[in-house]
Structure formats: structure tokens, C-alpha cells
Amino acid sequence: MAISEPTAGEFFPEKKNVRNPLVPVGAFITAGVLTAGLISFRRGNSHLGQKLMRARVVVQGATVALMVGTAYYYGDNPWQSDHKKEKI
Hints:
The chain has helices at residues 8-11, 22-42, 46-73, 82-87. With 88 residues, the protein is an all-alpha fold. Helix 2 (22-42) runs antiparallel to helix 3.
């Protein structure tokens, strides 16, 4: 009674292709602005830290809008029901 070893494909399913390389860039920019803002607060420069936190919100919103726009453009609309997808 031999037991077969699992393959790497069973553990790591195939990833979707990255359709928009700007989304990871936006995530890194968001993380960078957040880090800079937290450092500014730590050093006592609350005025600059507050501006950086506001900039983080703008960059984060742009990244989310880019993700939603890309998903809509490529037809991965999560709000579309399965019934409508079958008709198309």
C-alpha cells in the first residue's frame, strides 16, 4: 500500500496573472508614506505626520480605486451574480 507524495501544485495553486502592476506599487507607496508618517510622529513633528497620514489616505484610496477599476475592466465584477454571468 504505497502512499503518493503530494506535489507542489497541490500545495500552491496556480496564481492569477497580475493584470495591473501598479497595484503593488500603490501598496508599497502607501506603506512608505505610512512609515514616514509614523516616524514623524515619533520624532515629535506632528504637523508633518498629520500631512503624511492624509497623503496615505489619498494614496490608499487611489490604490483601491485602481484595483476595483482593473477588476471591472477585465470582467471580474464581484457584484455580478452567477446567473447574469451565464447569460453573457
